[in-house]
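Sat 14:20. Reprocessing the chain from the morning session after the first attempt stalled halfway. Input below, unchanged.
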Amino acid sequence: MHKIKRALILVLAVCAVVWLIADPWAFKEAAGLFTVRPPAVQLTGFFAITCMSVAMLLALRPISVEPQLGGLDKMYRLHKWLGISALVVAIVHFLWAKGPKWAVGWGLLERPVRGPRPPIDNPVEQFLAGMRGTAEGVGEWAFYAAVVLIALALIKRFPYRWFYKTHRLLAVAYLVLAFHTIVLLKFSYWTSPIGIVLIPLLAGGVYAAIVVLARRVGSDRQIEGKIASLQYYPGVRALETRIDVPESWPGHKPGQFAFATSDPSEGPHPYTIASEWIGGSRHVTFITKELGDHTKRLRDKLRVGQSVKLEGPYGCFTFEDNLKRQIWIGGGVGITPFIAKMKHRAASAETSPADPEIDLFHTSAEYDEVAFEKLKADAAAANVRLHILLDKRDGLLSGERIRAEVPAWREASIWFCGPPGFGAALRQDFSASGLDVATLFHQELFAMR
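Finished this time. Tokens:
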């Protein structure tokens, strides 16, 4: 989370610094609302389009950025925060552009008398000036559309299959707003640091929007696999799907995830990979719990032999550190990355003294004998101490309980995957107990919207 916050602050700080360098005296002669309005409109517009452009670039899922932010899940969280920031600043921009006009129309303000505009000699500036009316009109409607689309993306009850279809339309809104920016940005800014920042951002954002609209995001990381087996665990309402993959699959580390598309109308869904990747084992396994409309239908819709498109792998939740002890915590279906890591440890060479000692805590509200016996077997084969807690039988897992079971917890890193609220509570608890959670508490932010 700290990396995401720093990245967001960095984007906003760069905007502020660039603006101050380019036009430090923009508000110096502003003596009233109508003199403040032009630089305020320019400033807020610059901030809004910058945030939108960076968000569009992140929508391409660039794997080179993953390590810098700690994984694609963190990248999508930054994408979300940038979208919200752009929305907030765009609303302020809209109010600065429209508010004074409304106040004049309502008789609350008197429009100032303007002298004749100075003649425009530059032909490019003349051309852009002739398109101001069009840019203002389409920009206003694009703003309305972006407000609605971003709001829908933030409403969790809005079905994912509709979110997948409607969210792509933000790329259209972005293209219109890029045109709006090109026409209405103060012309002298294009040769200032503002232009140096905006030109590559707009070019990259336009490219990203075209890729999104062409449905080519991640196309170079996609392969076609076939379902080899399906096993349903009724006690925990989870489906295990094993997919055979071709040689073009690059392999994956335990803890990573991939996007799977079994129904094009539903779009790709992210799932943590529950299988190891050792030698020539050319398969990927997912464990999906019946949590929403889509996952509840998978049991009836998927068939052995069916083609499934996979994209990935992604993620940095890969258990990589130099500590001698690790504590794993898997809540519900959050056990999946730990299954993959245990299978990897068991399939690798015998555990060496350098490998960390591991305590795995799995807490669940449900029980399935077959699934839990498999989990116990995986833990035994990987030399992992397994602690299974059923909510009704054992109560809720707490930081205090973990510390009691693992006296050397101060020497360990903690890897958590499960409900976000549960993870936040454990993080706060361990922080209060003196753990450096910024570097030692690793949590998968698996919400992609």
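The chain has 16 helices and eleven strands.
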